[in-house]
Design a protein that fits this description.
Elements lengths: L1 H15 L17 H5 L3 H10 L19 H15 L10 H16 L6 H6 L7 H25 L16
Helix pairs in contact: 3-7, 5-7
Bound molecules: heme C (HEC).
Heme C binds next to helix 4 and helix 5.
Length: 171
Protein backbone atom coordinates (compact mmCIF):
# COMPACT_ATOMS: atom_id res chain seq x y z
CA UNK A 1 0.00 0.00 0.00
CA UNK A 2 2.62 2.53 1.13
CA UNK A 3 4.86 1.35 -1.66
CA UNK A 4 2.12 2.01 -4.20
CA UNK A 5 1.51 5.49 -2.86
CA UNK A 6 5.22 6.23 -3.02
CA UNK A 7 5.39 4.92 -6.58
CA UNK A 8 2.35 6.98 -7.49
CA UNK A 9 3.83 10.16 -6.01
CA UNK A 10 7.14 9.46 -7.71
CA UNK A 11 5.33 9.09 -10.99
CA UNK A 12 3.51 12.37 -10.51
CA UNK A 13 6.78 14.13 -9.70
CA UNK A 14 8.33 12.78 -12.87
CA UNK A 15 5.36 13.74 -15.01
CA UNK A 16 5.06 17.30 -13.75
CA UNK A 17 8.68 17.94 -14.74
CA UNK A 18 7.46 18.02 -18.33
CA UNK A 19 5.38 21.12 -17.60
CA UNK A 20 7.91 23.91 -17.67
CA UNK A 21 7.02 27.48 -16.84
CA UNK A 22 7.01 30.22 -19.40
CA UNK A 23 10.15 32.25 -18.70
CA UNK A 24 9.72 34.62 -21.59
CA UNK A 25 9.29 38.16 -20.33
CA UNK A 26 8.26 41.22 -22.30
CA UNK A 27 11.27 43.17 -23.49
CA UNK A 28 12.40 45.95 -21.17
CA UNK A 29 11.67 49.37 -22.56
CA UNK A 30 14.42 51.66 -21.19
CA UNK A 31 12.17 54.70 -21.51
CA UNK A 32 9.82 53.14 -18.93
CA UNK A 33 12.35 51.45 -16.64
CA UNK A 34 12.70 52.86 -13.15
CA UNK A 35 16.50 52.84 -13.10
CA UNK A 36 16.93 54.50 -16.50
CA UNK A 37 14.26 57.10 -15.68
CA UNK A 38 15.15 58.03 -12.11
CA UNK A 39 18.88 57.23 -12.25
CA UNK A 40 19.32 56.38 -8.57
CA UNK A 41 22.84 56.38 -7.08
CA UNK A 42 24.86 53.30 -8.07
CA UNK A 43 24.49 51.70 -4.65
CA UNK A 44 20.70 51.99 -4.68
CA UNK A 45 20.63 50.67 -8.24
CA UNK A 46 22.67 47.63 -7.20
CA UNK A 47 20.38 46.93 -4.26
CA UNK A 48 17.23 47.20 -6.36
CA UNK A 49 18.70 44.98 -9.04
CA UNK A 50 19.90 42.31 -6.66
CA UNK A 51 16.99 42.34 -4.18
CA UNK A 52 13.87 43.49 -6.04
CA UNK A 53 14.20 43.31 -9.83
CA UNK A 54 13.92 39.51 -9.99
CA UNK A 55 10.26 39.83 -9.02
CA UNK A 56 9.30 43.44 -9.64
CA UNK A 57 10.49 43.83 -13.22
CA UNK A 58 10.66 42.03 -16.54
CA UNK A 59 14.34 41.31 -15.82
CA UNK A 60 13.81 38.21 -13.72
CA UNK A 61 16.68 35.80 -13.53
CA UNK A 62 15.42 32.28 -13.14
CA UNK A 63 17.82 30.17 -11.04
CA UNK A 64 18.43 26.46 -11.76
CA UNK A 65 15.74 25.27 -9.35
CA UNK A 66 13.11 27.00 -11.45
CA UNK A 67 13.50 23.99 -13.75
CA UNK A 68 12.14 21.76 -11.01
CA UNK A 69 8.43 21.40 -10.38
CA UNK A 70 6.51 22.24 -8.30
CA UNK A 71 9.05 24.87 -7.11
CA UNK A 72 8.92 26.55 -10.50
CA UNK A 73 5.17 27.08 -10.36
CA UNK A 74 5.41 28.72 -6.97
CA UNK A 75 8.15 31.07 -8.13
CA UNK A 76 6.37 31.82 -11.38
CA UNK A 77 3.27 32.74 -9.45
CA UNK A 78 5.33 35.03 -7.19
CA UNK A 79 6.83 36.81 -10.15
CA UNK A 80 3.54 37.31 -12.00
CA UNK A 81 1.83 38.37 -8.80
CA UNK A 82 4.56 40.79 -7.74
CA UNK A 83 4.64 42.49 -11.14
CA UNK A 84 0.97 43.30 -10.78
CA UNK A 85 1.70 45.13 -7.55
CA UNK A 86 4.88 46.89 -8.49
CA UNK A 87 6.69 46.70 -11.80
CA UNK A 88 9.86 48.76 -12.12
CA UNK A 89 9.88 47.97 -15.85
CA UNK A 90 6.58 49.87 -16.20
CA UNK A 91 7.48 52.76 -13.91
CA UNK A 92 7.16 55.32 -16.71
CA UNK A 93 3.52 54.33 -17.19
CA UNK A 94 2.61 55.16 -13.60
CA UNK A 95 0.80 58.40 -12.95
CA UNK A 96 2.51 60.76 -10.51
CA UNK A 97 0.10 59.89 -7.71
CA UNK A 98 0.54 56.17 -8.35
CA UNK A 99 4.33 56.50 -8.42
CA UNK A 100 4.22 58.46 -5.18
CA UNK A 101 2.04 55.79 -3.59
CA UNK A 102 4.34 52.98 -4.76
CA UNK A 103 7.39 54.82 -3.45
CA UNK A 104 5.61 55.18 -0.12
CA UNK A 105 4.97 51.45 -0.06
CA UNK A 106 8.55 50.62 -0.95
CA UNK A 107 9.58 52.55 2.16
CA UNK A 108 6.96 50.80 4.27
CA UNK A 109 7.71 47.29 3.07
CA UNK A 110 11.46 47.80 3.35
CA UNK A 111 11.13 49.24 6.83
CA UNK A 112 8.96 46.33 8.02
CA UNK A 113 11.32 43.82 6.39
CA UNK A 114 8.40 42.45 4.39
CA UNK A 115 10.42 42.80 1.21
CA UNK A 116 12.23 41.05 -0.29
CA UNK A 117 10.06 38.03 0.49
CA UNK A 118 11.62 35.75 3.09
CA UNK A 119 11.53 32.73 0.78
CA UNK A 120 13.63 34.72 -1.68
CA UNK A 121 16.07 35.88 1.00
CA UNK A 122 16.57 32.24 1.90
CA UNK A 123 17.91 31.45 -1.57
CA UNK A 124 19.58 34.79 -2.36
CA UNK A 125 22.32 35.90 -0.02
CA UNK A 126 22.69 39.26 -1.77
CA UNK A 127 19.03 40.02 -0.97
CA UNK A 128 19.56 39.74 2.79
CA UNK A 129 19.75 43.47 3.29
CA UNK A 130 21.65 44.98 6.19
CA UNK A 131 20.10 47.78 8.24
CA UNK A 132 22.31 50.29 6.39
CA UNK A 133 21.19 48.99 3.03
CA UNK A 134 17.54 49.17 4.01
CA UNK A 135 18.07 52.71 5.25
CA UNK A 136 19.68 53.65 1.96
CA UNK A 137 16.65 52.40 0.02
CA UNK A 138 14.24 54.15 2.40
CA UNK A 139 16.12 57.48 2.26
CA UNK A 140 16.33 57.34 -1.50
CA UNK A 141 12.60 56.70 -1.93
CA UNK A 142 11.76 59.41 0.60
CA UNK A 143 13.76 61.89 -1.54
CA UNK A 144 12.08 60.56 -4.64
CA UNK A 145 8.67 61.19 -3.10
CA UNK A 146 9.59 64.83 -2.50
CA UNK A 147 10.53 65.15 -6.18
CA UNK A 148 7.36 63.40 -7.36
CA UNK A 149 5.21 65.60 -5.15
CA UNK A 150 6.90 68.71 -6.50
CA UNK A 151 6.06 67.53 -10.02
CA UNK A 152 2.47 66.99 -8.93
CA UNK A 153 2.30 70.57 -7.69
CA UNK A 154 3.71 71.76 -11.04
CA UNK A 155 1.18 69.67 -12.91
CA UNK A 156 -1.59 71.30 -10.89
CA UNK A 157 -0.43 74.76 -11.85
CA UNK A 158 1.29 75.43 -8.55
CA UNK A 159 -1.50 74.28 -6.29
CA UNK A 160 -1.04 71.23 -4.18
CA UNK A 161 -4.18 69.17 -4.35
CA UNK A 162 -4.08 66.00 -2.33
CA UNK A 163 -4.90 63.16 -4.68
CA UNK A 164 -7.92 61.15 -3.64
CA UNK A 165 -6.38 57.94 -4.93
CA UNK A 166 -3.00 58.45 -3.34
CA UNK A 167 -3.72 56.27 -0.35
CA UNK A 168 -6.36 53.97 -1.67
CA UNK A 169 -4.06 50.93 -1.62
CA UNK A 170 -6.49 49.09 -3.84
CA UNK A 171 -3.90 48.47 -6.51
C1 LIG B 1 10.54 36.75 -4.52
C2 LIG B 1 9.84 37.83 -5.11
C3 LIG B 1 9.92 39.23 -4.55
C4 LIG B 1 11.05 39.99 -4.29
C5 LIG B 1 12.50 39.59 -4.48
C6 LIG B 1 10.58 41.28 -3.84
N1 LIG B 1 9.21 41.30 -3.81
FE1 LIG B 1 8.02 42.87 -3.36
N2 LIG B 1 6.34 41.73 -3.62
C7 LIG B 1 6.33 40.40 -3.99
C8 LIG B 1 4.96 39.90 -4.02
C9 LIG B 1 4.52 38.47 -4.37
C10 LIG B 1 4.14 41.00 -3.65
C11 LIG B 1 2.61 40.97 -3.57
C12 LIG B 1 2.00 41.26 -2.27
C13 LIG B 1 2.55 40.54 -1.08
O1 LIG B 1 2.82 39.33 -1.16
O2 LIG B 1 2.69 41.18 -0.04
C14 LIG B 1 5.04 42.13 -3.41
C15 LIG B 1 4.63 43.39 -3.02
C16 LIG B 1 5.46 44.48 -2.88
C17 LIG B 1 5.01 45.83 -2.58
C18 LIG B 1 3.57 46.26 -2.39
C19 LIG B 1 3.06 46.99 -3.60
C20 LIG B 1 1.60 47.36 -3.45
O3 LIG B 1 1.17 48.18 -4.24
O4 LIG B 1 0.92 46.82 -2.57
C21 LIG B 1 6.12 46.62 -2.50
C22 LIG B 1 6.16 48.11 -2.23
C23 LIG B 1 7.27 45.76 -2.74
N3 LIG B 1 6.83 44.48 -2.96
C24 LIG B 1 8.58 46.21 -2.72
C25 LIG B 1 9.69 45.39 -2.87
C26 LIG B 1 11.06 45.86 -2.75
C27 LIG B 1 11.47 47.29 -2.45
C28 LIG B 1 11.85 44.78 -2.95
C29 LIG B 1 13.36 44.73 -2.85
C30 LIG B 1 13.96 45.28 -1.68
C31 LIG B 1 10.98 43.63 -3.20
N4 LIG B 1 9.68 44.05 -3.15
C32 LIG B 1 11.42 42.34 -3.49
C33 LIG B 1 7.44 39.65 -4.34
C34 LIG B 1 8.76 40.06 -4.23
Amino acid sequence: MIKNIALGLGGVLVIIQFFQIDKIQPEVNPSLDFISLEQPPQEVENLLRSACYDCHSYESEYPWYTNIQPVAWLIDHHIDHSQEYLNFSEWGNYSLSRADHKAEEVIEYTENREMPLWSYRLMHKEAQLTDDQRQLIMDYFADLRVQIQAKQVDANGGESTPDANANSGSD
